[in-house]
Write a structure and sequence with these properties.
The structure is a homodimer. Chain A has about 425 residues and is an alpha+beta fold. Chain A has nine helices and 21 strands.
Chain lengths: ~425, ~425
């Protein structure tokens, strides 16, 4: 009886949804608007489950920043950090940074190949199945896009910080594959290339490749998602997202730095900016309470958020409720992984007065997350530069949230 | 151009799939057959991504074991362990054990409430939003159903071991909520109840509740999936799956053990069986090569699989390629979490001769995973008993896989 009812409901909904899909004339720009999913049949739900109809978190595209290559196409898709719990980002909600928006290569893993060549004794080409026969490693790491920087006009944490996500990645250590090929004397860099028109490549020092990089085929227990580079992606823990080449096709071992299309920001006239780092510094953000949220009234709340660093493990997170004058250490209740999102929390009694909340991270190297003004000094630039241009390097500045006396929460970046 | 093409293809497929859904007269038994999903529109893919069309892993129902309560309904749905990588189980592929198959309560989290009462000073009722205001904890734990036992007639690792899965769970420590209520003197047990017709409850010692139990609302970064108890589930790390009450409604603090509907197996005439443990012992299984898989020929392979224990962290995994006569320690390349799936691997050169592969786990308590014959002795029962009845307690026996000289792999349990 129960099953029959559920089945009929499932059918009606699926039929209506299919009609709606037919009505969409999809272009890149129209693809920007999220809509509800058609529900699955009971049969499908046995095979592959889905979330509750009451759970409606969605990613949103960055509308004011289209792909520089294909006008009208989405460049960045933001993950809803304000609605996430724990440390892992659901694969369906992982941020996307790509020149092609949601239109990604439709690759058959049986035909895709990955090549290592250049300054090696034995250039080798691997199928995905061949890579899966190598010893694998699974590690939890964040990936954060260089474009992840807060601006005063952004309202929510999805807008200010939604270009970072964290997954359990599974793949083959890059060092193992390079040893298999035999790296020649004099080699000092690698250049990677993916199947995007812009190649998605980057120059990375060989030392990093031999350290903790991997050629990943798995994400959160299943194959990589297409938007994350299915079937193969380079994982470069702690580095700017763009180095984590999707739809990975080849790695060339070379003797020097090669400029690639993806050197966003690195290619600058001003030496101080061109010389910026590629490894993320210590960073954190409060996800509750954060911009656009509403506290029902004075009382005890659990401030919570995420901290991470490209330099290793998070050692400490501190929270200020007075705009950075005094700091109190937050709790990190779970296990801490290197170069991974780390959930923190702190009980906080709100008295109903306007105040400004901030979090700051110290990583295992002892690096401290900077205030906005300190970050500007670090780059030898006046704060005004960043106000008008945005930060051009990795932006790990402290994010302030103002809690108004009516309980509404606002971006307090100026 | 590219986007238009993708859209048209999406529409045609969605239409065909909807027609197929209409043709299904769903009953519990017919719901057993997985089918392909209609693809999403480009618009939807911005909001919430999906896997590649080349990735087709699906769960399958246990067809020979229908729900004892509702004839024809599915009781157990098996996760495809043979196709998973890393340690996390994708939420859509998490095993399901429930009396209602895929038909699960459709609960509105705004209306759902959870109550703690019984031997407490202050009985309290919590909404989901209220629970989210408490300090949260996120931990990676396996959940394994008591029904997860291998039988000689099962062919694949999905059939022999597909009732265990591993997620990052987020929720409120049970100890915190119990302290909030004030546990009274003389209290020694708790009884939990969910929203299934059979209540899904269990009696658990108060000491466990005060140790590492949690009331979870999050799974792998997003709200619990409906099939996993949305919006609230009890997490009882290391204990039989049935204790992890789904659609959690209440916990009663009591002074003694209460029998509940879910005491499968525990209610036995034979004292030795009635007294069996509820905490999983050290367990492991090789997922590659495993039953139903095919090695292309002699050569070097990476044996890989998962190990776990209800007693804490996995300390060591050993592999035998000669049916248990000699053992070699496997590598554990990632971080090891307590009461969590732990991926292991070992390079193995197959010479083309028939052989039997086994894995065994030692946990941090020093407990060693038993051979089938040892497990039988432990319960003071002749092996024949288990042959005909299946193991009635937690089954953590070593799983042997026979590699035939033609490279085919078979269940070698006898």
């Amino acid at each position: 009886m129960a099953s029959k009812k559920a089945s009929r409901r499932g059918f009606l909904k699926a039929g209506a949804a299919a009609a709606a899909v037919g009505a969409i004339k999809t272009t890149g720009a129209e693809a920007a608007l999220p809509q509800a999913q058609p529900p699955k049949s009971l049969k499908d739900l046995v095979a592959y489950g889905e979330r509750s109809r009451f759970v409606t978190s969605v990613r949103v595209p960055v509308v004011d920043r289209p792909s520089p290559d294909q006008f009208g196409l989405i460049f960045h898709i933001l993950t809803p950090l304000q609605e996430q719990v724990g440390n892992i980002t659901p694969s369906s909600l992982h941020f996307v940074g790509t020149h092609r928006g949601a239109i990604v290569p439709d690759l058959d893993p049986k035909e895709h190949k990955f090549m290592i060549h250049g300054m090696v004794d034995r250039p080798l080409e691997f199928t995905v199945d061949e890579l899966k026969r190598f010893p694998s490693v699974s590690r939890i790491h964040f990936i954060e896009c260089l474009g992840n920087h807060s601006k005063p006009e952004y309202k929510t944490v999805q807008e200010t910080h939604g270009l970072t996500s964290c997954s359990e990645w599974t793949g083959v250590p890059m060092s193992l594959l390079l040893k298999e090929c035999g790296v020649q004397k004099g080699a000092a860099w690698i250049v990677s290339e993916g199947l995007e028109e812009v190649k998605g490549g980057g120059s990375i020092r060989l030392a990093k490749a031999m350290d903790d990089m991997m050629v990943a085929y798995g994400q959160n227990g299943e194959p990589l998602r297409p938007q994350q580079g299915f079937p193969l992606r380079l994982i470069v823990p702690g580095f700017e997202g763009v180095y984590n080449t999707k739809w990975l096709r080849r790695v060339k071992v070379v003797d020097r730095y090669y400029m690639t299309y993806n050197d966003y920001g690195h290619i600058q006239k001003e030496e101080e900016i061109a010389a910026m780092t590629v490894q993320w510094g210590p960073k954190s953000v409060i996800t509750f309470p954060s911009g656009g949220q509403q506290l029902p009234g004075p009382g005890v709340y659990q401030i919570t958020g995420l901290a991470w660093s490209g330099g290793g493990k998070v050692r400490k997170v501190e929270i200020s409720a007075d705009g950075g004058q005094t700091w109190k250490e937050a709790e990190i209740p779970g296990e801490v992984h290197s170069k991974a999102h780390t959930r923190f929390g702190l009980n906080w009694k709100w008295d109903g007065q306007e105040c400004t909340l901030m979090s700051r991270c110290t990583d295992e190297l002892g690096q401290l997350q900077p205030m906005r003004s300190q970050l500007a000094q670090h780059f030898h630039e006046p704060p005004d530069y960043y106000k008008t241009h945005g930060v051009q390097g990795t932006d790990n500045m402290i994010q302030p949230w103002r809690v108004a006396s009516d309980g509404s929460v606002h971006n307090a970046l100026v």
